[in-house]
């Protein structure tokens, strides 16, 4: 039986921190030995708990993506503002920049699929805000939620990758304004 906060959780936290630190440093193809050295956890424990390296990556990327949270304010204007600010913060994290660079640098199909799979819950949060706004009558129903997400997030992603830092306030404000203009005007 695993105890919350027990030894198993300490091991998991140490290993996830080591994996994410390697990714942040640009070492996406780390070895189990590198993770063992960095985390202080025995290599046999790593193989026992994560026998497939992709499972180790999946859990680490999932943990990283869990830092993305988007409140539902019940207002498209407030939601789009929160979304753009949160995504600007999220995309500017060194781990996220490193992951996105790997994703756009023609990774093997397995890695690309793994990263896209882990992005799914984040994408779903964004698209749910669009559907919520549509159900409240704030956004037209003919606009596809993935299109709204693409329109709002793509500039943030591109600007972050180009500068390797957070998007500036002026660009953030303009993206928010564009998103808010999608709403029905009474």
Radius of gyration using CA atoms only? 19 Å
Number of self-contained structural domains = 2
Question: So, CATH architecture of the largest domain?
Answer: Orthogonal Bundle
> Which overall shape is indicated by the principal axes computed on the Cα atoms?
elongated
**Helix segment count?**
9
Looking at CATH, the homologous superfamily of the largest domain is Tetracycline Repressor, domain 2
Tell me the helix content.
over 70%
List low-confidence stretches: none
Summing up helix and strand content along with how strands pair, one would put the structural category as: mainly alpha
Tags for this entry?
Tetracycline Repressor, domain 2, Arc Repressor Mutant, subunit A, 186 residues, 2 domains
Brief account:
The protein has 186 residues and is mainly α.
Q: Mind sketching the topology for me?
A:
Layout: H1 7-24, H2 32-39, H3 43-49, H4 53-65, H5 76-91, H6 94-104, H7 109-135, H8 145-163, H9 169-180
Describe the structure.
This protein is mostly helical and 186 residues long. The protein has 2 domains: 7-58, Arc Repressor Mutant, subunit A, CATH 1.10.10; 67-180, Tetracycline Repressor, domain 2. 70% of the residues lie in helices and 0% in strands. It is built from 9 helices and no strands. The protein has helices spanning 7-24, 32-39, 43-49, 53-65, 76-91, 94-104, 109-135, 145-163, 169-180. Helix 5 packs antiparallel against helix 9. The mean pLDDT is 89.
